[in-house]
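tool_call: predict_structure(chain=1)
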Amino acid sequence: MTLYRKSLGYTGEDLAVNYLLEKSFTIINRNYHTRMGEIDIIAKKTDKLHFIEVKTRSNLNKGKPYEAVNQHKIHHLLKAAQFYLLKNKIKGCKLSLDVISIWLNSDNTIKEILYFENITM
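tool_result:
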């Protein structure tokens, strides 16, 4: 991964966290790593735990950011979320696998931010 893509990813994640905080979410964890994959953001709102994948793009040459979340990626996110739940002994909580899609202007300001809640669960 190039330094630019890594920097773009961190910028997107910071913007996503700010977006979630404005929507009254509590951030539980960021960049949670497992052997099965990484969860960008784990957040909670009311009685629901959200596992959130953030996709950020500065142009649409390869399509909208959310289009990068394919079945393969969803499979790894679900496995990572299951690992998190087992490791932290979380039971009886409503769950949601979500995507935040961010398209940036050239100055890294938000051109479009879309939040897709509960994409598979």
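agent: The longest strand covers residues 94-104. Proceeding to next step.
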